[in-house]
C-alpha cells in the first residue's frame, strides 16, 4: 500500500548561482500540494555554511532535500556533494543534482560521489515544473516513509 | 666503379688490352665527372676523388676537397648518423639512402641524402659515395607538416569554440525561454491581443533557437566527444539504427533491407547515428508509395563503399553538395520539419572515419547516398 506523504512542512535547500533558476524552482514548488520551506544558497561556499550552521546561518534548519547545481563560482556542485557525502551528519540528506549539463562525464562523476539523483534542467517550462515537482515529491515521500519505518 | 667494370669481364678471356683499359678509364671519367649526383671516393676517412657536382653542393672547388677529411663537412650533431648508416650500408644491411645535414663553404646548412658502396681504389679498400641535395624537399616537407599541424590545431579550436558557444549559450537562453513561457502561462488573456501575439513569437523564437543550439552542440560533439575506434559489425549497426527508427518505419510501412555488410574499424555509436540519419531521411522524404531502403557495401582493398538507396522524392543535382552543409534545408518547415543538421552530422562522422560522402539523385527518382569507410581505421587524431 502506498501511504500518503505526511503533511509536515519540508525544508528544501536550493543551491544555484542563477537567481532566474532559483525563482523558477520557487514558482514550480509554489502551487504544489506540499507546503515546503525553500532556502537558497548562491554557491557552494554558502551551501556548506548553511549546512554546518556557520555565520549568518546559525539558526538554519537541517534540510530534508538539497537541489544542487553543478556549475557555480567559488565552490562548484561536485565539491559540495563530496563534502556532504563525506560528512556523517549530512550524508543521509538526499542530494538531487539539478543542472543545465547533459554531459555523460558529469553524470558519472556525480553518481561516483553518491548523488541520489541527476536531472538535466528541461528546456521547456512545463517540463521543468513537472520535473521539480516529481523529484521533490519522490524524495520527500521516500524520506517520510523511511522516518515512519524508523519510528 | 673501375673494380666493377673489371669484374664483369669473363674470367676465361685474356686480360684487357691496353686499348680496352683506356676506354674503360675514359668511360669512368665521363660518368664520374659529368654525373648530376655528387660522387666521391673516400679512403681512410679522406676524400681521394670528388666530382664537380659534389664540389658544387659543398660550395668548394674540387681540389679544395681532395685530401680533406670527409666527415668535416657534416654537421657535428649528424656525424653519428652518418657513421652508423654508412657502416650498415657497407655491410649490405640496408639499401635505403640516409639523410643528414652538411655545411657549405659559405656556412650554409643543406640537407643531403647519401648512399655508399665498398670499392677498391688504387688497389686499396675505399668507399664510393653518392650524394644529392634534398634541402628543397625537406623545406617543403617541413612546411607541409607545419601547415597540417596548423590546420589540425585550428580545427580543434573551432570544434571547441562551437562546443563552448552552444553549451554556454544554453543557460541564458533557457532563462529567456522559461520566463517568456511563464509570462504566457500566467498572463494569457489578461493583456491585450497584441501582447499575447508578441509573447507567442518570443516563446517560439526562443524554442527554435534552443533546438538549433542543441543541434550545433550535437554536431560539434562528433569531433569532441567521439569514442576510440574498435571493430564494428555493420549489420548490427544497421539493425540498431532500424530499432531506433522502429515507430517511423512501421508508421509508413517502409521496408529496409541490406545485403551482407562487413565489419569495419569505427565508432559504433556514430555509425549507428550515420545509418539512422540516412535511413530516417529516406523515410521522411518519401513519395506517396511506401518507402524502400536498400543498403549495400562494396569492398575495394582497404576501402568499403556503402550505398543507401531509396525510392523517395530525390534531390536536384544542383544541391548535391550543399545538402551536407550545416542548417541546410531544401524544404519549408511546413513541408518537412527539421533543422537541416542531419546530413551535416553524417558528413562529419564519415570524415572522422577517413571517408567521404556523396549523393546521386534526380528529383522524383529516389536518392542513393554513398559513403566510404577506411578499413584501416584511419582516424586523423
Short overview:
The complex is a heterodimer of chains A (151) and B (381). With 151 residues, chain A is of the alpha/beta class.
Alpha-carbon Rg of chain B, integer: 35 Å
Based on CA inertia axes, which overall geometry of chain A fits? globular
Number of helices of chain B: 11
Query: Count of DSSP E strands of chain B?
Result: 12
Instruction: Count structural domains of chain B.
Output: 3
- The CATH class of the largest domain in chain B is Alpha Beta
**CATH fold-type name of the largest domain in chain B:** Heat Shock Protein 90
Taking pLDDT < 50 over at least 5 consecutive residues as the criterion, the unreliable ranges of chain B are 1-12
Number of helices of chain A: 5
In percent, how much strand structure appears in the residues of chain B? 15-25%
- The coarse overall form of chain B would be elongated
CATH hierarchy class name of chain A: Alpha Beta
How far is it from the N-terminal to the C-terminal residue of chain A, by CA? 18 Å
Describe the structure.
The complex is a heterodimer of chains A (151) and B (381). Chain A has helices at 19-30, 44-51, 77-85, 104-112, 125-150, and strands spanning 10-15, 36-41, 65-68, 95-99, 117-120. Chain A has 151 residues and is α/β, with parallel strands linked by helices. Chain A has a single domain, classed as Response regulator (Rossmann fold, 3-Layer(aba) Sandwich). In chain A, strands 2-1-3-4-5 form a five-stranded parallel beta sheet, sandwiched between helices. The two termini of chain A are 18 Å apart. The model of chain A has no long low-confidence stretch (mean pLDDT 83). Chain B folds into three domains: 35-133, Beta-Lactamase; 135-225, Helix Hairpins; 228-381, Heat Shock Protein 90 (2-Layer Sandwich), CATH 3.30.565.10. Helices cover 46% and strands 22% of the residues of chain B. Chain B contains eleven helices and twelve strands. Chain B has a five-stranded antiparallel beta sheet with strand order 2-1-5-4-3. In chain B, strands 7-9-10-12-11 form a five-stranded mixed beta sheet. A two-stranded antiparallel sheet of chain B has the order 6-8. The longest helix of chain B is centred in the middle third of the chain and has 53 residues, at 135-187. Chain B is elongated. Chains A and B meet through α1 and α5 of A and α6 and α7 of B.
